[in-house]
Amino acid sequence: MASAWKNTESPSPGDHRRATVLRDVIETGGVGAECGVYKGEFSRALLETLSPARLYLIDPWYLFAKEWHWGDGDRSTVSALCNIMRMFETELVGGRVVLRIDDDLHALSEMADHHLDWAYLDSTHLYGPTVKELALLRRKVRPRGIVAGHDWQPDPAHRHHGVCKAVREAVDRGEFELIMVDEPTIQWAVRVPG
Predict the structure, then answer these.
(1) What is the pLDDT of residues 160-193, one digit of tens each?
(2) Which pLDDT belongs to residue 165?
(3) Mean pLDDT score of the chain, rounded to an integer?
(4) Most buried of 18, 67, 74, 77, CB within 10 angstroms?
(5) How far apart are CA 178 and CA 68, in angstroms?
(6) How far apart are CA 59 and CA 77, in angstroms?
(7) Angle, in degrees to the nearest 10, between helices 127-140 and 161-172
(8) What is the pLDDT at residue 177?
(9) Where are the beta strands (DSSP E) in 49-135?
């Protein structure tokens, strides 16, 4: 049976639009991390738009499960990872892209403090894990660096509201400065103090 997997080298218009919004708050170059890569559809847009010298792609893929229970098309986590390896073959071999097949909390904990210039968070969308990710990213992203993410949902009834709640609480505690909320792309960005 042939796979329904779509190998795309170019980001979709929606992914490109999301990455372009980030260009206003994240400096090009530097070292970044995408936590929650899924099928890698946004990763190419990050590379093209933000031009990081190194981009860590962190996702548990097959360690999470054989298949995701959401999304369209091929839900195989192994197919997703294989496609990402093909899509980023040149960048992987050259060291510009680094794959971390792991839970982001564990993968990030192994990085040196202040190693990242920025991080993009699009993982569980749940309150508890987001609280832990933000606490860890505050140490792993350099002072004045950026933590951004997806699924800003201010409605408490929304299933992804935990992200918004966790970010707002961290900002209220003075752990970050909120610098952007883009409602059309449901993205947010905070700056690490320093």
Answers:
(1) 999 999 999 999 999 999 999 999 999 999 999 9
(2) 98
(3) 92
(4) 18
(5) 31
(6) 10
(7) 50
(8) 98
(9) 54-59, 97-101, 116-121
How many Å apart are CA 155 and CA 83, to the nearest integer? Answer: 35
Matching residue, tokens 């800003």: 152
Type of residue at 105:
L
Give which of 170, 175, 181, 169 is closest to 194, Cα–Cα. 175
**Which residue has tokens 């993982």?**
123
Strand ranges, E, within the chain: 31-35, 54-59, 97-101, 116-121, 141-150, 177-182, 187-191
Which amino acid, one-letter code, is at 25?
V
The DSSP H or E segment spanning 13 is: helix 13-22
- For 150, phi then psi, to 5°, come to -115, 165
Identify residue 121 by its one-letter amino acid code: L
Q: How many residues does the chain have?
A: 194
Residue written as tokens 């909390």?
105
